[in-house]
Amino acid sequence: MRWVDQFSLENQVAVVTGAAGGLGRELVAILADAGASLVLADTDECKLNELSQEIDPSGQKVLSQRCDVTNKNDILSLIESAHKKFKAIDLLINCAGILGSDELLFGVSEDEWDSVLNVNLKGSWLAATHIAKYMVDHGIEGRIINISSSLGFRSQLKRVPYATSKAAVEHLTRNLAMELVSHKIRVNCLAPGWMETNMVKNLLEGPEGKKWRNAIPMRRAANPSELAGPLLLLASKASSYMTGAVIRVDGGYSFCGIEMPE
Fold this sequence. Notes:
alpha/beta; single chain; 8 helices; seven-stranded parallel beta sheet
């Protein structure tokens, strides 16, 4: 076998939560290009159906289903549907997440805190727990990839719930890795920084664009294709001796210090 063949996901089934979001769509495209069959989960059924048609109009290698990751029954239903269609789940990408409002500490409501932590942290825990149990019950040596952010390590103004949730996701990753290693299930974490979405482009090219570009050592956002290598490393056999790791793909943003108010 050639070394590059380790990165193939042919004959592998991947569940992606938050699949219809900006980052989720990019990850789905990468996994599809590597040959994976896909189980797409999101709360936006319309966007899910559009994405499913884009990836595989025949529907042979794609299943899409509405799923609220904070709801245990939704996750169990998703697992049941995936097993019925593909008879396996080899990989979970925990990408469902919300940013929350743009508020300083005293402007954050209790409802806002609960909403962000429920989706970003509880949702990741629920999906990982139940899909890992499925993997154990079916003797699958699976992989789980949690999605964090550069703010899982770096402090930033107006992001208390979000940054806290992502730091917790990184520690959840380490604890899941320890719990599941005896079952030959590997758990790692991908932590992207600024991605070249329309929203980010508008911000970096707007009135405060220079400030934000200067905060990134590489002075730019990432092209989504730059996530392909790190994602496929963690998703494939190429990372067979990795578990509990966090890979940061953020142009150096996470190590650049703490943003202080003026």
